[in-house]
Amino acid sequence: GRLGALSPGQVLRRLDDRFRLLAGGDRTALPRHRTLRTAIGWSHELCTPPERLLWARLSVFSGPFDLEAAEYVCSGDGLAAEDVLDVLSALLAQSVLTREESPAGVRYRMLDTVRAYGADWLEATGDADRLRRRHRDWYVGLATWCELEWFSPRQDEVAARVDAELPNLRSALEHCLDEPDGAHLGQYLAGALWFHWVGCGRLSEGRHWLEQAVRLEAEPTAGEQSRLKALWVLAHVAILQGDTVPALAALQECRREAERSANPAAVAYAEHRTGCLALVTDDLPRAETLLRSALHRYREIGELNSNVLMGQVELAMARAFQGDLPDAVRLCEDVRQVCEDHGERWARGYALYVLAYAAWSEGDPVRARELLADCLGGAHRFRDQLGSVLAVELLALVTVAEGDAAEAAVLQGVAGRMWPSVGLPLFGSAHYNAPHELCEAAAREQLGDERYVECVRHGARLGRREAVAR
């Protein structure tokens, strides 16, 4: 309707104010149908005062939300927590809200236009800042719970919950980082979500939030520990992306400040991630020294979680690259047992990867394939891009060893398509790259260059689910 007067570009720029743009409709229609604002306003007028109040307050949610979140964030000052369910049900009956099922349970959602109308009313009440703080506090609490429960049998539930809550977690992060006194909360929230950035395929987004968080100056007493955690998590993400220079800078700052403030946990994490950096840059003796020291520090302070187990897996990888396969197997079997005792599935997948590497190195491709299939299934369930692509890379080598060079080349094409969403392929590491080069050389020899390239291109065209199923 507006294209007679405006270009598509002008329409796009004006869509931020949908109520101003979408006005002046069919003059033969009822007055309440002629503009978007009066159409929504008609529904608003039909609501009771408590319904209008809840509508306005629910506008602070940036995506789907559950009942518990609505009760916490929106109650008080004229709306008791025990009344939220009844008022919310009335808004559902009037289609102000919609109800949806998700892997994280029953959720509620507002259409963006309905939400924008409520947000205008919330601003008019003068209560918007308080509601945004309550929204922030709820999601900081949710992230705290999810980080603790990641190391438990509820790992799948946690992954689904954070995925469903991501729009609201982003909104909470924005609020923390925009508020003058919210820097320490932003650093805390960005760091607490490490398992999602690293374990659920969100490396680039995690890097975005963490870099913003560590640039902010927080109150020393309130934010020191949160800043240290944000620094080592930022370094972890950058290492996995193959970006070693900013990773090293963050780790050096973290270690220096952790020692100054006598924070043994932050020292251990900084040392652990420095060992991980040495591993992916092929300095294996230094990696082994640092990782053993970090694991000793973890034991001294009683730390046991998925990060600690990953440190042991990384130590096993360093031992395997140096030729000590029995020690690598011992370390990863221990991790596997701890994971089974605690219901941990994510770190277990990386232990299976190292065990598969050892099985292939010892000439047992059948055992290696069995372990890698298990590893890949778990990584795919969590959407862990790094775990998935490492498993596919090694599966390609196992496949060529079993005599199917064409399928091995297809799998290399699959891996080639996956690496850009992670970072630098195989971290730029000669040791991690060795299986890829062995596979490529064997496949090219058996297929010829032209057929090899054709198979790689076929693999690169496969979607993620199709590739994993294959």
Q: What does the model show?
A:
By secondary structure, the chain is an all-alpha fold. Among the domains are: 8-127, Winged helix-like DNA-binding domain superfamily/Winged helix DNA-binding domain (Arc Repressor Mutant, subunit A, Orthogonal Bundle), CATH 1.10.10; 304-356; 363-470, no CATH class. Helices cover 74% and strands 2% of the residues. It has 25 helices and 2 strands. The chain has helices at residues 8-14, 18-21, 36-45, 49-58, 67-74, 84-93, 112-125, 128-150, 155-178, 183-192, 194-199, 203-215, 220-240, 244-260, 264-280, 284-301, 306-321, 325-342, 346-361, 365-382, 385-401, 405-418, 430-447, 449-460, 464-469, and strands at residues 98-102, 105-109. It has a two-stranded antiparallel ribbon. It is globular. It starts with 7 loop residues before the first helix and ends with a helix.
How does the SSE layout of this entry go?
Layout: H1 8-14, H2 18-21, H3 36-45, H4 49-58, H5 67-74, H6 84-93, E1 98-102, E2 105-109, H7 112-125, H8 128-150, H9 155-178, H10 183-192, H11 194-199, H12 203-215, H13 220-240, H14 244-260, H15 264-280, H16 284-301, H17 306-321, H18 325-342, H19 346-361, H20 365-382, H21 385-401, H22 405-418, H23 430-447, H24 449-460, H25 464-469
Antiparallel strand pairs: 1-2
Helix pairs in contact: 4-6, 4-7, 5-8, 8-9, 8-10, 9-10, 10-12, 10-13, 12-13, 13-14, 13-15, 14-15, 15-16, 15-17, 16-17, 17-18, 17-19, 18-19, 19-20, 19-21, 20-21, 21-22, 21-23, 22-23, 22-24, 23-24
